[in-house]
Amino acid sequence: MKIIIIGGGIGGLTTALCLHKAGFEVKVFESVREVKPLGVGINTLPHSVRVLTNLGLQDIIAQNAIETTDLAYFNKFGQPFWSEPRGRFAGYKWPQFSVHRGTLQMILFEEAKRVLGADAIVANHHLGSFEQNEKEVIAHFVNRETGEPMHTETGEVLIGADGINSVVRQQLYPNEGPPVYSENVLYRGTTRMKPFLNGTTMVMIGHMGQKMVVYPIDPTPDENGDYLINWVGNLREGKSKLTARDWNREADKARLVDIYKEWTFDWLNVPAMIDGAKAVYEFPMSDRNPLDRWTFGRATLLGDAAHPMYPIGSNGASQAILDADYLTECLLKYNNPLEALEAYDRERVPAAAKVVLQNRAKGPDQIMDRMEERFPNGFSEEEIPHAELEEVMDHYKKVAGFDVQTLNKKG
Ligand SMILES: Cc1cc2nc3c(=O)[nH]c(=O)nc-3n(C[C@H](O)[C@H](O)[C@H](O)COP(=O)(O)OP(=O)(O)OC[C@H]3O[C@@H](n4cnc5c(N)ncnc54)[C@H](O)[C@@H]3O)c2cc1C
Protein backbone atom coordinates (compact mmCIF):
# COMPACT_ATOMS: atom_id res chain seq x y z
CA MET A 1 0.00 0.00 0.00
CA LYS A 2 1.40 3.41 -0.93
CA ILE A 3 0.92 6.20 1.58
CA ILE A 4 1.45 9.90 0.88
CA ILE A 5 2.41 12.06 3.85
CA ILE A 6 2.02 15.82 3.59
CA GLY A 7 4.49 17.65 5.86
CA GLY A 8 7.96 16.70 7.04
CA GLY A 9 7.70 18.00 10.62
CA ILE A 10 8.02 15.83 13.70
CA GLY A 11 4.58 14.29 13.07
CA GLY A 12 5.06 13.54 9.38
CA LEU A 13 8.58 12.14 9.70
CA THR A 14 7.73 9.94 12.69
CA THR A 15 4.73 8.60 10.78
CA ALA A 16 6.94 7.86 7.78
CA LEU A 17 9.39 5.92 9.97
CA CYS A 18 6.66 3.96 11.77
CA LEU A 19 4.89 3.06 8.52
CA HIS A 20 8.10 2.10 6.75
CA LYS A 21 9.07 -0.15 9.65
CA ALA A 22 5.66 -1.81 9.35
CA GLY A 23 6.33 -2.53 5.65
CA PHE A 24 4.33 0.19 3.89
CA GLU A 25 5.52 2.22 0.92
CA VAL A 26 5.72 5.84 2.05
CA LYS A 27 6.50 9.16 0.40
CA VAL A 28 6.78 12.44 2.35
CA PHE A 29 6.22 15.81 0.68
CA GLU A 30 7.47 18.89 2.50
CA SER A 31 6.66 22.44 1.49
CA VAL A 32 9.93 24.17 2.42
CA ARG A 33 12.77 24.28 -0.08
CA GLU A 34 15.24 22.87 2.44
CA VAL A 35 14.54 21.23 5.82
CA LYS A 36 16.41 23.34 8.41
CA PRO A 37 16.64 22.95 12.20
CA LEU A 38 14.11 25.67 13.11
CA GLY A 39 12.30 26.43 16.35
CA VAL A 40 13.49 26.32 19.94
CA GLY A 41 12.91 23.74 22.66
CA ILE A 42 10.29 21.04 22.88
CA ASN A 43 9.69 18.08 25.14
CA THR A 44 9.01 14.48 24.37
CA LEU A 45 7.23 12.69 27.19
CA PRO A 46 7.74 8.98 28.04
CA HIS A 47 4.69 7.83 26.01
CA SER A 48 6.18 9.29 22.83
CA VAL A 49 9.76 8.33 23.68
CA ARG A 50 8.46 4.75 23.77
CA VAL A 51 7.58 5.12 20.06
CA LEU A 52 10.90 6.77 19.22
CA THR A 53 12.71 4.01 21.15
CA ASN A 54 10.94 1.35 19.09
CA LEU A 55 12.26 3.16 16.01
CA GLY A 56 15.79 2.72 17.40
CA LEU A 57 16.26 6.44 18.04
CA GLN A 58 16.54 6.69 21.81
CA ASP A 59 20.35 6.69 21.91
CA ILE A 60 20.88 9.36 19.30
CA ILE A 61 18.23 11.59 20.85
CA ALA A 62 19.79 11.07 24.30
CA GLN A 63 23.17 12.20 22.94
CA ASN A 64 21.60 15.45 21.72
CA ALA A 65 19.00 16.16 24.40
CA ILE A 66 18.67 16.66 28.12
CA GLU A 67 17.06 13.82 30.00
CA THR A 68 14.70 15.81 32.21
CA THR A 69 14.91 14.64 35.81
CA ASP A 70 12.28 16.81 37.45
CA LEU A 71 9.64 19.45 36.94
CA ALA A 72 9.39 22.25 39.49
CA TYR A 73 6.88 25.07 39.93
CA PHE A 74 7.63 28.47 41.51
CA ASN A 75 5.58 31.59 42.12
CA LYS A 76 6.57 35.01 40.74
CA PHE A 77 8.81 35.58 43.77
CA GLY A 78 10.77 32.41 42.99
CA GLN A 79 9.25 30.42 45.88
CA PRO A 80 8.90 26.69 45.14
CA PHE A 81 5.48 25.06 45.64
CA TRP A 82 5.54 21.85 43.58
CA SER A 83 8.19 19.47 42.35
CA GLU A 84 7.96 16.02 40.81
CA PRO A 85 10.40 13.58 39.23
CA ARG A 86 9.99 13.01 35.48
CA GLY A 87 10.61 10.25 32.99
CA ARG A 88 12.70 7.35 34.29
CA PHE A 89 13.17 9.24 37.58
CA ALA A 90 9.41 8.93 38.09
CA GLY A 91 9.42 5.19 37.39
CA TYR A 92 8.57 5.25 33.66
CA LYS A 93 10.34 2.73 31.45
CA TRP A 94 11.19 5.58 29.07
CA PRO A 95 12.86 8.95 29.65
CA GLN A 96 11.50 12.43 29.09
CA PHE A 97 13.69 14.48 26.76
CA SER A 98 14.03 18.22 26.47
CA VAL A 99 15.48 18.91 23.05
CA HIS A 100 15.82 21.57 20.39
CA ARG A 101 12.91 21.09 17.97
CA GLY A 102 15.27 21.48 15.02
CA THR A 103 17.65 18.85 16.41
CA LEU A 104 14.85 16.33 16.82
CA GLN A 105 13.46 17.11 13.38
CA MET A 106 16.91 16.66 11.79
CA ILE A 107 17.43 13.33 13.60
CA LEU A 108 14.10 12.12 12.19
CA PHE A 109 14.88 13.59 8.76
CA GLU A 110 18.31 11.92 8.51
CA GLU A 111 16.89 8.62 9.72
CA ALA A 112 14.00 8.84 7.26
CA LYS A 113 16.41 9.51 4.37
CA ARG A 114 18.61 6.61 5.52
CA VAL A 115 15.90 3.97 5.82
CA LEU A 116 13.35 5.12 3.23
CA GLY A 117 15.89 6.48 0.73
CA ALA A 118 16.38 10.16 -0.10
CA ASP A 119 13.87 9.93 -2.97
CA ALA A 120 11.06 9.19 -0.53
CA ILE A 121 11.42 12.56 1.25
CA VAL A 122 10.64 15.29 -1.26
CA ALA A 123 11.25 18.94 -0.28
CA ASN A 124 9.95 22.03 -2.08
CA HIS A 125 6.56 20.40 -2.73
CA HIS A 126 3.64 22.37 -1.35
CA LEU A 127 0.29 20.61 -1.38
CA GLY A 128 -2.28 22.75 -3.19
CA SER A 129 -5.21 20.32 -3.08
CA PHE A 130 -6.12 16.66 -3.27
CA GLU A 131 -8.95 14.54 -4.61
CA GLN A 132 -9.96 10.92 -4.17
CA ASN A 133 -12.00 8.20 -5.80
CA GLU A 134 -12.86 4.61 -4.87
CA LYS A 135 -9.37 3.34 -5.56
CA GLU A 136 -6.90 6.11 -4.89
CA VAL A 137 -6.10 9.58 -3.65
CA ILE A 138 -4.40 12.14 -5.86
CA ALA A 139 -2.29 14.96 -4.41
CA HIS A 140 -1.62 18.10 -6.43
CA PHE A 141 1.50 20.07 -5.56
CA VAL A 142 2.08 23.69 -6.48
CA ASN A 143 4.89 26.20 -6.41
CA ARG A 144 4.38 27.86 -3.00
CA GLU A 145 5.26 31.33 -4.24
CA THR A 146 3.41 31.40 -7.57
CA GLY A 147 0.68 28.76 -7.08
CA GLU A 148 1.70 27.18 -10.42
CA PRO A 149 0.96 23.42 -10.61
CA MET A 150 4.19 21.39 -10.42
CA HIS A 151 3.56 17.72 -9.63
CA THR A 152 0.85 15.12 -9.05
CA GLU A 153 1.24 12.04 -6.86
CA THR A 154 -1.13 9.11 -6.51
CA GLY A 155 -1.41 6.77 -3.54
CA GLU A 156 -3.94 4.77 -1.58
CA VAL A 157 -3.88 6.90 1.59
CA LEU A 158 -3.06 10.57 2.21
CA ILE A 159 -2.02 11.80 5.67
CA GLY A 160 -2.18 15.53 6.33
CA ALA A 161 0.66 16.23 8.77
CA ASP A 162 0.99 19.79 7.54
CA GLY A 163 0.80 21.71 10.81
CA ILE A 164 -1.47 24.34 12.33
CA ASN A 165 -2.16 25.99 8.94
CA SER A 166 -2.92 22.64 7.27
CA VAL A 167 -4.06 22.74 3.65
CA VAL A 168 -5.50 19.23 4.04
CA ARG A 169 -7.65 20.36 6.97
CA GLN A 170 -8.69 23.49 5.11
CA GLN A 171 -9.91 21.37 2.20
CA LEU A 172 -11.81 19.06 4.56
CA TYR A 173 -13.23 21.97 6.60
CA PRO A 174 -13.34 24.94 4.19
CA ASN A 175 -15.38 27.14 6.52
CA GLU A 176 -13.31 26.69 9.65
CA GLY A 177 -11.31 29.92 9.49
CA PRO A 178 -8.07 30.75 11.32
CA PRO A 179 -6.87 29.19 14.60
CA VAL A 180 -8.47 30.39 17.84
CA TYR A 181 -6.30 33.01 19.58
CA SER A 182 -6.07 32.69 23.36
CA GLU A 183 -5.16 36.38 23.91
CA ASN A 184 -1.82 35.12 25.20
CA VAL A 185 1.45 35.52 23.33
CA LEU A 186 4.39 33.18 23.69
CA TYR A 187 7.89 34.65 23.65
CA ARG A 188 10.49 32.00 22.88
CA GLY A 189 14.26 32.12 23.03
CA THR A 190 17.43 30.23 23.87
CA THR A 191 20.32 31.56 25.94
CA ARG A 192 23.80 30.18 26.58
CA MET A 193 24.33 30.32 30.35
CA LYS A 194 25.42 28.43 33.43
CA PRO A 195 23.12 25.59 34.50
CA PHE A 196 20.50 26.35 37.17
CA LEU A 197 19.15 24.12 39.97
CA ASN A 198 20.37 20.58 39.29
CA GLY A 199 21.10 21.26 35.60
CA THR A 200 18.35 18.99 34.25
CA THR A 201 15.26 20.54 35.86
CA MET A 202 12.37 22.02 33.91
CA VAL A 203 10.83 24.98 35.75
CA MET A 204 7.55 26.87 35.51
CA ILE A 205 7.46 30.29 37.17
CA GLY A 206 4.63 32.74 37.85
CA HIS A 207 1.04 32.31 36.68
CA MET A 208 -0.85 32.26 33.40
CA GLY A 209 -0.96 36.08 33.14
CA GLN A 210 2.83 36.22 33.29
CA LYS A 211 4.66 32.96 33.14
CA MET A 212 8.12 31.73 32.27
CA VAL A 213 9.06 28.15 31.40
CA VAL A 214 12.78 27.36 31.46
CA TYR A 215 14.73 24.19 30.70
CA PRO A 216 18.09 23.14 29.27
CA ILE A 217 18.01 21.40 25.86
CA ASP A 218 21.58 20.47 24.97
CA PRO A 219 23.87 18.23 27.05
CA THR A 220 27.10 19.67 25.61
CA PRO A 221 28.52 22.85 27.18
CA ASP A 222 30.43 25.39 25.08
CA GLU A 223 34.06 26.40 25.78
CA ASN A 224 32.89 28.67 28.65
CA GLY A 225 30.98 25.90 30.35
CA ASP A 226 27.66 27.45 29.30
CA TYR A 227 24.66 25.33 28.32
CA LEU A 228 21.88 26.07 25.88
CA ILE A 229 18.81 26.95 27.94
CA ASN A 230 15.38 27.19 26.35
CA TRP A 231 12.78 29.56 27.72
CA VAL A 232 9.22 30.52 26.87
CA GLY A 233 7.51 33.55 28.37
CA ASN A 234 3.74 33.62 28.35
CA LEU A 235 2.04 37.02 28.63
CA ARG A 236 -1.66 37.72 28.64
CA GLU A 237 -1.65 40.45 26.00
CA GLY A 238 -5.34 40.64 25.17
CA LYS A 239 -6.93 40.99 21.75
CA SER A 240 -4.69 43.86 20.71
CA LYS A 241 -1.56 41.74 20.40
CA LEU A 242 -2.40 39.11 17.77
CA THR A 243 0.94 38.53 16.03
CA ALA A 244 1.34 36.56 12.81
CA ARG A 245 1.31 32.77 13.16
CA ASP A 246 4.86 32.57 11.97
CA TRP A 247 7.23 30.52 14.09
CA ASN A 248 10.15 32.73 13.02
CA ARG A 249 8.73 36.17 13.80
CA GLU A 250 11.09 38.24 15.99
CA ALA A 251 9.85 40.12 19.07
CA ASP A 252 11.09 43.16 21.01
CA LYS A 253 13.60 41.76 23.51
CA ALA A 254 14.01 45.00 25.52
CA ARG A 255 10.27 45.13 26.23
CA LEU A 256 10.35 41.58 27.56
CA VAL A 257 13.40 42.24 29.76
CA ASP A 258 11.53 45.19 31.25
CA ILE A 259 8.35 43.18 31.93
CA TYR A 260 10.33 40.48 33.77
CA LYS A 261 12.76 42.88 35.49
CA GLU A 262 11.70 41.93 39.04
CA TRP A 263 12.24 38.21 38.48
CA THR A 264 15.78 37.98 39.84
CA PHE A 265 15.89 34.95 42.11
CA ASP A 266 18.89 33.51 43.90
CA TRP A 267 18.60 30.42 41.67
CA LEU A 268 17.83 32.13 38.32
CA ASN A 269 18.08 35.66 36.91
CA VAL A 270 15.21 35.82 34.41
CA PRO A 271 15.82 39.31 32.91
CA ALA A 272 19.52 38.50 32.39
CA MET A 273 18.52 35.22 30.74
CA ILE A 274 16.16 37.00 28.34
CA ASP A 275 18.76 39.66 27.61
CA GLY A 276 21.33 36.96 26.81
CA ALA A 277 19.26 35.47 23.98
CA LYS A 278 20.40 36.21 20.43
CA ALA A 279 16.80 36.60 19.31
CA VAL A 280 13.33 36.37 20.80
CA TYR A 281 10.45 34.97 18.74
CA GLU A 282 6.78 35.66 19.33
CA PHE A 283 3.88 33.39 18.48
CA PRO A 284 0.22 33.83 19.39
CA MET A 285 -0.85 31.03 21.70
CA SER A 286 -3.57 29.49 19.53
CA ASP A 287 -5.31 26.20 19.00
CA ARG A 288 -8.30 25.02 17.04
CA ASN A 289 -11.61 23.65 18.20
CA PRO A 290 -11.55 19.85 18.32
CA LEU A 291 -13.06 18.23 15.22
CA ASP A 292 -15.62 15.43 15.15
CA ARG A 293 -13.55 13.53 12.63
CA TRP A 294 -10.19 13.70 10.90
CA THR A 295 -10.79 10.89 8.41
CA PHE A 296 -12.63 11.33 5.13
CA GLY A 297 -12.31 8.21 3.02
CA ARG A 298 -8.65 7.79 2.13
CA ALA A 299 -7.48 11.05 3.72
CA THR A 300 -6.86 11.82 7.36
CA LEU A 301 -5.12 14.34 9.62
CA LEU A 302 -2.28 13.94 12.11
CA GLY A 303 -0.32 16.09 14.59
CA ASP A 304 -0.90 19.84 14.64
CA ALA A 305 -3.03 19.59 11.49
CA ALA A 306 -5.47 17.45 13.47
CA HIS A 307 -5.21 18.90 16.98
CA PRO A 308 -3.13 22.05 17.42
CA MET A 309 -3.00 22.72 21.16
CA TYR A 310 -1.59 25.20 23.62
CA PRO A 311 1.98 24.29 24.54
CA ILE A 312 0.96 23.45 28.07
CA GLY A 313 1.91 20.14 29.65
CA SER A 314 4.62 19.47 27.01
CA ASN A 315 2.27 17.51 24.76
CA GLY A 316 2.33 19.07 21.24
CA ALA A 317 5.03 16.93 19.65
CA SER A 318 4.24 13.93 21.85
CA GLN A 319 0.61 13.71 20.73
CA ALA A 320 1.72 13.85 17.06
CA ILE A 321 4.04 10.91 17.76
CA LEU A 322 1.21 8.99 19.44
CA ASP A 323 -0.94 9.58 16.34
CA ALA A 324 1.83 8.13 14.17
CA ASP A 325 2.07 5.03 16.33
CA TYR A 326 -1.65 4.35 16.47
CA LEU A 327 -2.26 5.04 12.78
CA THR A 328 0.43 2.49 11.93
CA GLU A 329 -1.16 -0.03 14.27
CA CYS A 330 -4.53 0.44 12.52
CA LEU A 331 -3.09 0.13 9.02
CA LEU A 332 -1.38 -3.10 10.07
CA LYS A 333 -4.53 -4.48 11.66
CA TYR A 334 -7.01 -3.84 8.84
CA ASN A 335 -6.45 -4.91 5.25
CA ASN A 336 -8.76 -2.20 4.05
CA PRO A 337 -7.27 1.32 4.40
CA LEU A 338 -10.72 2.87 4.76
CA GLU A 339 -11.44 0.72 7.80
CA ALA A 340 -7.99 1.43 9.21
CA LEU A 341 -8.43 5.20 8.99
CA GLU A 342 -11.87 4.92 10.58
CA ALA A 343 -10.39 2.94 13.48
CA TYR A 344 -7.61 5.54 13.87
CA ASP A 345 -10.27 8.23 13.97
CA ARG A 346 -12.36 6.45 16.60
CA GLU A 347 -9.44 6.23 19.02
CA ARG A 348 -7.36 9.33 18.43
CA VAL A 349 -10.01 12.03 17.76
CA PRO A 350 -11.55 11.88 21.25
CA ALA A 351 -8.20 11.22 22.95
CA ALA A 352 -6.52 14.28 21.40
CA ALA A 353 -9.63 16.44 21.91
CA LYS A 354 -9.40 15.82 25.65
CA VAL A 355 -5.82 17.08 25.72
CA VAL A 356 -6.69 20.17 23.63
CA LEU A 357 -9.53 21.02 26.03
CA GLN A 358 -7.48 20.26 29.14
CA ASN A 359 -4.77 22.60 27.84
CA ARG A 360 -7.39 25.29 27.24
CA ALA A 361 -8.32 24.84 30.88
CA LYS A 362 -4.59 25.43 31.64
CA GLY A 363 -3.79 21.72 32.04
CA PRO A 364 -1.32 21.06 34.84
CA ASP A 365 -0.41 24.76 34.93
CA GLN A 366 -3.71 25.57 36.62
CA ILE A 367 -1.82 24.98 39.85
CA MET A 368 0.08 28.19 39.08
CA ASP A 369 -3.10 30.25 38.94
CA ARG A 370 -4.50 28.59 42.07
CA MET A 371 -1.37 29.58 43.99
CA GLU A 372 -1.36 33.12 42.56
CA GLU A 373 -5.04 33.68 43.37
CA ARG A 374 -4.66 32.38 46.91
CA PHE A 375 -1.24 33.79 47.74
CA PRO A 376 -0.58 36.87 45.56
CA ASN A 377 1.99 38.11 48.07
CA GLY A 378 3.74 34.77 48.60
CA PHE A 379 3.13 31.89 51.01
CA SER A 380 4.72 30.05 53.88
CA GLU A 381 5.69 26.37 53.55
CA GLU A 382 2.75 25.16 55.73
CA GLU A 383 0.21 26.91 53.48
CA ILE A 384 1.00 24.88 50.33
CA PRO A 385 -2.07 22.67 49.50
CA HIS A 386 0.00 19.61 48.47
CA ALA A 387 -2.92 17.15 48.13
CA GLU A 388 -4.92 19.53 45.92
CA LEU A 389 -1.95 20.18 43.65
CA GLU A 390 -1.25 16.47 43.39
CA GLU A 391 -4.81 15.78 42.24
CA VAL A 392 -4.49 18.28 39.36
CA MET A 393 -1.15 16.85 38.25
CA ASP A 394 -2.34 13.22 38.35
CA HIS A 395 -5.51 14.00 36.46
CA TYR A 396 -3.59 15.62 33.58
CA LYS A 397 -1.27 12.63 33.21
CA LYS A 398 -4.27 10.31 32.86
CA VAL A 399 -5.98 12.55 30.28
CA ALA A 400 -2.81 12.92 28.22
CA GLY A 401 -2.14 9.18 28.33
CA PHE A 402 1.02 9.10 30.37
CA ASP A 403 0.17 7.89 33.81
CA VAL A 404 2.99 5.62 34.80
CA GLN A 405 1.08 2.39 35.54
CA THR A 406 -0.86 2.34 32.24
CA LEU A 407 2.12 3.30 30.13
CA ASN A 408 4.60 0.85 31.62
CA LYS A 409 2.35 -2.07 30.62
CA LYS A 410 3.08 -1.28 26.95
CA GLY A 411 6.05 -2.71 25.08
C1 LIG B 1 9.28 26.15 11.79
C2 LIG B 1 8.58 25.61 13.01
C3 LIG B 1 9.08 25.94 14.27
C4 LIG B 1 8.44 25.45 15.42
N1 LIG B 1 8.95 25.78 16.63
C5 LIG B 1 8.37 25.30 17.75
C6 LIG B 1 8.92 25.59 19.03
O1 LIG B 1 9.91 26.28 19.15
N2 LIG B 1 8.30 25.10 20.13
C7 LIG B 1 7.17 24.31 20.03
O2 LIG B 1 6.63 23.87 21.04
N3 LIG B 1 6.63 24.01 18.82
C8 LIG B 1 7.20 24.47 17.69
N4 LIG B 1 6.67 24.15 16.47
C9 LIG B 1 5.46 23.30 16.43
C10 LIG B 1 5.78 21.85 16.76
O3 LIG B 1 6.79 21.39 15.90
C11 LIG B 1 4.51 21.04 16.62
O4 LIG B 1 3.56 21.54 17.56
C12 LIG B 1 4.64 19.55 16.93
O5 LIG B 1 5.96 19.11 16.79
C13 LIG B 1 3.73 18.73 16.01
O6 LIG B 1 4.36 18.66 14.74
P1 LIG B 1 3.66 18.51 13.36
O7 LIG B 1 4.61 17.70 12.53
O8 LIG B 1 2.28 18.04 13.49
O9 LIG B 1 3.57 19.99 12.80
P2 LIG B 1 4.73 20.99 12.34
O10 LIG B 1 5.93 20.86 13.18
O11 LIG B 1 4.11 22.34 12.22
O12 LIG B 1 5.12 20.45 10.87
C14 LIG B 1 4.30 20.63 9.73
C15 LIG B 1 5.16 20.53 8.49
O13 LIG B 1 4.32 20.58 7.33
C16 LIG B 1 4.89 21.44 6.37
N5 LIG B 1 3.78 21.96 5.53
C17 LIG B 1 2.87 22.90 5.85
N6 LIG B 1 2.01 23.07 4.84
C18 LIG B 1 2.37 22.20 3.87
C19 LIG B 1 1.85 21.91 2.55
N7 LIG B 1 0.75 22.53 2.07
N8 LIG B 1 2.48 20.97 1.79
C20 LIG B 1 3.59 20.32 2.27
N9 LIG B 1 4.11 20.57 3.51
C21 LIG B 1 3.50 21.49 4.28
C22 LIG B 1 5.58 22.51 7.20
O14 LIG B 1 6.59 23.17 6.48
C23 LIG B 1 6.14 21.68 8.38
O15 LIG B 1 7.43 21.19 8.10
C24 LIG B 1 7.26 24.63 15.30
C25 LIG B 1 6.76 24.31 14.03
C26 LIG B 1 7.41 24.78 12.89
C27 LIG B 1 6.86 24.41 11.51
TrEMBL record:
Keywords: Monooxygenase, Oxidoreductase
Source organism superkingdom: Bacteria
Domain FAD-binding: 2-356
One MF annotation (Gene Ontology) recorded for this entry: monooxygenase activity
Keyword Cell inner membrane in annotation: no
NCBIfam families named in the record: PRK07538.1
Protein's name in the database: FAD dependent oxidoreductase
Species assigned in the record: Runella slithyformis (strain ATCC 29530 / DSM 19594 / LMG 11500 / NCIMB 11436 / LSU 4)
